[in-house]
Protein 1
Amino acid sequence: MATSSSPPQSDTEVVAERRGIPAASFVKDVQAYLDQLGLDVNSTLAFQQERLQQYKIVEMKLLAQQRDLQAKIPDIEKCLDVVATLQAKKGTDEALLTDFEVSEGIYSRARIENADSVCLWLGANVMLEYSCEEATSLLQKNLENAKASLEVLVADLQFLRDQVTITQVTIARVYNWDVHQRRVRQASSSQD
Amino acid sequence: MQQAGGGSETEVTWEDQQNINKFGRLNNRYHELEDEIRIAKEANENFEDASNELILTDEEVVRFQIGEVFAHVPKDEVEMRIEQMTETTTKHLEKLKDEKDAVVAQMADLKKVLYAKFKDSINLEED
């Protein structure tokens, strides 16, 4: 997917793109930028606005992914808790009594004796049986993967928001520059 | 190059842009932290309510939520679990509050720098 192997971002380095998101080029001088693009002010503004819209769309997508991951992590932690409790009970000779939800508002009692194995829902209508230790290590691995993905996602979002800010500042500067040019032209033409 | 007044010709250097970007990131983080702190405080309040209820009840076995089910757990174990959870959440809350203070301080510094350079041309206040 991403063709560039972007080096870790430092304060002085400029990254050309990150995981498919193009970086917004910083404009040092508005006049030079307009000359380089070869477009007039309105076209430039339109181009920047379009870029901004595209960034916003990607931001929505990333935010949705972030919400999903943030919901998934507490779920995995709850599962780990349950497996740990089952393992703890295995040592003693007592059965574990639990009340579980059969349907909304309806609960039933279950008696779990010596849980040697648990079944884990893997998604796509698939459920596998694991020993308690295997289940713990699988869930732990899933948890770590989820947390790592979340970190990368957060970094992507930060990069994206930076590009949005740069684009917004560029739009403001081009617009101001245009206003300033008009004032200068009006002032010089009224002097003639 | 700089026009006196109006500020419409103020030069924006790459350093300024990076400062503006950093301020944006800090502002976002600040709002996220506020939300997380609120959630942690609510959790602590719930734990406190739960442990108060625990003291009032005279049952020996309490139905304690583990995952999605309610396990029958002896009262002492429940008390211990709630204590552990409260401790974890309190530590987490402290960490969040410290981070929030750091973020607020950095934002104040950046505001000074940016307002000094751009004066009226920039607005860094919450709408």
Protein 2
Amino acid sequence: MPLVNNKVGDDCTDEALADGKALVDSLIKVVACYRHLASCVGGCTDSLQLREELRQTREKAQMLSVAICSHLTSHLRNKRLPEGQRKEMELLWVAFSSSLELLHGDMCKVFNVAEIFSLANTDSLVQTGLQGGGSEVAARALSLPDLNRAQSPTLPAGLESQERSTMEQEIGQIEHMIDDMEMKVNVMRWMVEPHGPQYTDPLSSTDSASLALLSVDEEQPGRQPLCQRSQIFVLLLMFAVVLVAATLSVCVVFFS
Amino acid sequence: SSGEDIIAWLADRFQVDTQEARNFVSMLVALGYIYPLQDHRRLVIKPDASLYRFQTPYFWPTQQWPVEDTDYAIYLAKRNIRKRGILELHEQEHYNRLHKWMNHKWDFVVMQAKEQYRAAKERKKPDRVVFECQERAYWVVHRPPPGTVSAMDYGLDRLTDPNADEVTGLLCCSFKHYTPLTRSLCFLCSRRLVKYCSTYKSHDPFLSNCLPSNPWLTDDATYWSLNMPSVEIPTKMRVERWTFSFAELLSDPRGRDDFRLFLKKEFSGENLAFWEGCEDLKWGEAATMREKAEHIYKTFLARGAPRWINIDGKTMEVTVKGLKHPHRYVLDPAQTHIYMLMKKDSYGRYQKSPVFKDTVKKAICPEEHRYRHRRPSLSPIILRQMEQEQRAKMAANVDITQLCRFTTPVPHLAVYSGLTDFPTANASPPLPFLVHTPACPSPISVALESTSASERRVEAGGGEGDGDPAAARAPVGGHVSGSRVALSLRRLLRRGCTSASVFASLSPKCHSAAGTSVRIQPIIPDQPKNTVNTKFVFLEIKCDINQAVNDT
């Protein structure tokens, strides 16, 4: 009997672990997307749409974090958790708290910048050289295949201040959550050991190569004509060599 | 837009000249508001066609958001994901360091980097590139490559804001990202620190002049003699320190004496005596601890004790129980109680008492020492150097060929001026050696050599050098060298040299000659005649060598 019970218990926590991991992974994804969107605020691609996307991403992040918080707290406060499981939970905990901190930072930044750069005055937006918006990123964050924006681009002015107050509230909530977490669960950060290696492998060679090429182009545009010239020179040389070889062989055949 | 365009536009917009505009723009670039596209590592403005771009407000330094190491780690990991080995050396170092101390977060860092990378891929390629440039520029500003000047060192990150009235206010501002509890604690600590600094500022010998003068600077030890532990009349500064806190009063022996006097007048001296007894127990020897504890108990704590102290019942109970197995800290609760009692009650009354007021009135305030008349003593380093030079010269001038069987080769004359050598001196005859050299086969040649040497020496103030070894020897060497002289003279006579008479006849002349060459020095005490003579062998030979030859 006790064996069966234990087994059930293990399964439960394994599942819980897997759940927790999935949740944390998605939170990390959302936080990463939020950062990309946040970096566009105040720039020339800033628009109501961007703000809307930011808001939606933020809401999703908060939803996820509340879920993770309750999930992890309940499990970590369970004193009968086996040691291995506990370690995994603690890892998730550390990841969760770090993501929350990042999210909090980004939210504060967005809040500040949005205050300075009001959308009512689009001339004052900084020309950062960006072209497109963050719709694709937002789509990724919200795990939607496509974002159909059929809303009208103009919104009443009062909405901005409302937006600001809700944002303030949300920032406060996140702060509160962080504090709460520290109070409720005592995770010793220095005891947590990560799994992964120090350096991660490049994700995919083609992508990285193309990106590298692009960055090289960006970095040294002055050298481009030179490279091209040298390449053309080499090609010509090879062509000439081939031609000479061909004529020689023809001569040999012809005269022998 | 290109560099020169920016400068031109700024000059036009703000109605300033080109140089000013260039300065302003270079500052903008250094701080990260504009970043160069080529040569991104050097944040300078080049007035040519090189291209620049505006930084997005998210990465501006204006709001002084803290630059997190976590973000930096994620950024470096991202770049490494893109292309392995792209990190520069200083970035590699940073990466390894961050990996070490942020180890617990490392899984998160790597995952976040991957997610950010994937999210970036969702964007259009040009936008992706722009974002990467933006991020890169941000990190060049905040984590500059080694050897570059960072604009963040002063200015935005400067911790002392000249506009802030109170240091505490500023500290609060920089702590606004912390939790309220941490903030209030920091506030209290900083308040206390500021108060402590302002109270003790005038008493710190580094920050303000100590009266009469700092002995280390002026060689005048009046300050120390005035502030001795048991001095009769304390200085004003010292008395002022007693008013800062009770601990200060008790830690100063003179203060404690004063306090004891006051308590005697008030007939509550037993408190202080008990406290002192406890201190003695705490810091005393382990052997006498038991007796001390018993003595204290009998004197202060027992019922009907001669100097019974007034402590509450609970403490008394605890103490008595502890005294069954006494140890160093058995009387700690009682001591603390008495200390607090004295602090709250007697200390206040002491400060208002006639005893204290009298002390304050009598306290002296020494005048500041005008140390223009500082005694110029030669630094011991210089003295030693001169000594060494002297020895080297004398060692160099000793002619090896002049060795005879009565002499022993002395490689250098270090033993010459060493005090330690004198007890064993009979065995090794450094002095006789010197005395012998002129007595050995060809006094003339030696004399000639020594003449030149001694001439050189005298010119170089060599008398002083001689004086030094003499000084070193003087306390001991007085009579010893006298006997040496006798010894050497006897040997000389045995050998048939009449240099003894030479010495005798020469000595007055040479002494005068030597006398003139010796520079007066406050350190070297007066030399008895014979030591001077025996040392100045070379000089003696220098004078009237003809006479010596004639005599032989």
